[in-house]
TrEMBL record:
InterPro entries, alphabetized: PfkB_dom, Ribo/fructo_kinase, Ribokinase, Ribokinase-like
SUPFAM superfamilies: Ribokinase-like
Name of this chain's protein: Ribokinase
Note accompanying the cofactor annotation: Requires a divalent cation, most likely magnesium in vivo, as an electrophilic catalyst to aid phosphoryl group transfer. It is the chelate of the metal and the nucleotide that is the actual substrate.
Provenance organism: Actinomadura vinacea
UniProt keyword list: ATP-binding, Carbohydrate metabolism, Cytoplasm, Kinase, Magnesium, Metal-binding, Nucleotide-binding, Potassium, Transferase
Residues engaged in binding ATP: N181, T213, L214, G215, A216, D217, G218, G244, D245
Taxonomic lineage: Bacteria, Bacillati, Actinomycetota, Actinomycetes, Streptosporangiales
List of residues binding K(+): D239, T241, A275, R278, G280, S284
Active site per the UniProt annotation: D245 (proton acceptor)
Length: 294
């Protein structure tokens, strides 16, 4: 019911007392290796919630690739279009300081080699999906080609503008919804503002609908019917890593099952809140039978 087209990364995390200056060496904690990447996170989150989920992506033929494949398989994601590239998988090199702040370098690796020709072979899977979800950690031409293929086959296109990058108008017009946080909204519009104003202005740029996530303050949904506010359940936030991916995955699943956008966003906010209660990204995602915060 949901297909995710996107990135698959190994997150390599080291705790440091402070970051090294140029030319300096510092010692850090043991290395921890976690499955990540926005695409894989979304696919795992939607599958954990009980969705039938496929992924179109690329990993390398290295050890990370095997780990990433296993994590997706463990969640029950269909891997028939998880392609293997000679060379390294995508990795995110993450240092975490004692204050909990992250510094991240992403090496796209195999993700950069997911090309429009790969979309052609995945057409049957895209055509069978109700909703196809995109983020921007793979080449934009591939996003464009797959979104066009999905829309032509009657699937609904959901696109998370993360990491922020300019979108071709033709791609923007397919988004239903365009999912952004406040930073991504400001990036696209070139200015900041109140969330309701940002939502209306984004809608004016051409997507079919807009969803702005506001962390603990919930989300705003904007479409032809107007702007609707959705609240976040009150939870103790332990780690927000990957919460946006859990939110978008839950949204896609409910849209695939026929919810309207506001109802899907209400459910997604509960799933996002569940994901911030536990550390990590994929490790924090709730199962279908877990009681969600309300
Ligand atoms: P991003 O992580 O992409 O910047 P947000 O910070 O808006 O996006 O978080 C995405 C979603 O995660 C929110 O819409 C909400 O559902 C959930 N979330 C994030 N932080 C909290 C929080 N402190 N309390 C409850 N839910 C949260």
């Amino acid at each position: 019911e949901v297909v995710v087209v996107g990135s698959v990364n190994a997150d390599l995390v080291i705790g440091v007392r402070r970051r090294p200056a140029p030319g300096e060496t510092v010692l850090g904690s043991d290395l921890a290796t976690y499955p990540g990447g926005k695409g894989a996170n979304q696919a795992v989150a939607a599958a954990r919630l009980g969705g039938r989920v496929g992924i179109l992506g690329r990993v390398g033929d290295d050890g990370h690739g095997a780990l990433l494949r296993a994590a997706l398989a463990g969640a029950g994601v269909d891997l028939s279009h998880l392609l293997v590239t000679e060379g390294p998988s995508g990795v995110a090199l993450i240092t975490v300081d004692p204050g909990g702040d992250n510094s991240i370098i992403v090496s796209p690796g195999a993700n950069a080699r997911l090309v429009p020709a790969d979309v052609d072979r995945a057409r049957p899977m895209l055509a069978a999906a109700s909703v196809v979800s995109f983020q921007l950690e793979i080449p934009i031409e591939t996003v464009e080609a797959a979104a066009r293929a999905a829309a032509d086959a009657g699937a609904r296109v959901v696109l998370n503008l993360s990491p922020p990058a300019p979108l071709p108008d033709g791609l923007l017009a397919l988004c239903d919804p365009l999912v952004v946080n406040e930073h991504e909204a400001a990036f696209l519009l070139g200015h900041r503002g109140g969330p309701a104003d940002l939502a209306k202005e984004l809608l004016g740029r051409g997507p079919r609908s807009v969803l702005i996530t506001l962390g603990a303050d919930g989300a705003l949904v904007a479409d032809a019917a107007g702007v609707t506010a959705v609240s976040s359940p009150k939870v103790e936030a332990v780690d927000t890593t990957g919460a946006g991916d859990a939110f978008t995955a839950a949204l896609c699943l409910r849209l695939a099952r026929g919810d309207d956008l506001a109802d899907a966003a209400r459910y997604a906010a509960r799933v996002g809140a569940a994901a911030v209660r536990r550390p990590g990204a994929q490790s924090s995602y709730p199962d279908a039978d877990e009681e969600l915060p309300a």
